[in-house]
Amino acid sequence: MRDPQVERLVLKCLEGRTLSRVELVSRTGATDHEVQSALDELISTAYVVRRPQDVGPADYELTPVGAERLAQIGRIIATPIPAARRPITKRQPAAKKRRAPDVAPVPRPAGPESAAVRTPRLEAQPEPADRELIVRLAKDLAVGVVFAGVMIATHTSLLMMALVFLITGVRMFSTYRTWAKKRRSE
Known about the structure:
Blueprint: H1 4-14, E1 19-20, H2 21-28, H3 32-44, E2 48-51, E3 59-62, H4 64-78, E4 103-104, E5 121-122, H5 128-153, H6 158-185
Antiparallel strand pairs: 1-3, 2-3, 4-5
Helix pairs in contact: 2-3, 5-6
């Protein structure tokens, strides 16, 4: 059975009465497709029998085996599940997740602004000068990777490729040295 909840609802609605599929849909609140699927499976397992009518849609009736199945479902639902074997459902509160060590809480302002959305901030957020270095190094590396990609696509020799990587490394080192001198002079 795809949805045991629909199975239980259909069996419960058919308890002591015969109903058409349209009546089952309105009483269970399930879709027509879900009810029809449940009825097909319940008929194949002999829990429900289909009673064709001369006029109008067929009625469905609970069999004695179906009544036993409904009682069995009721006992299963009524039996408490030990906490160790109980599945976690959406209704149970989940265990609190630990915060990642690199995220610091943002202090909330007091007053009506406290309902504002919090944004995580990095504890070791780089300074503007450090960001400048990171951006320059990334640009130098990107230029080197693009040139290497072009050389790979044009089947250039490995010596030329090594030369591109060497030039890229020298440019990145030069960028770092310039940044370090600038930083020391501040």
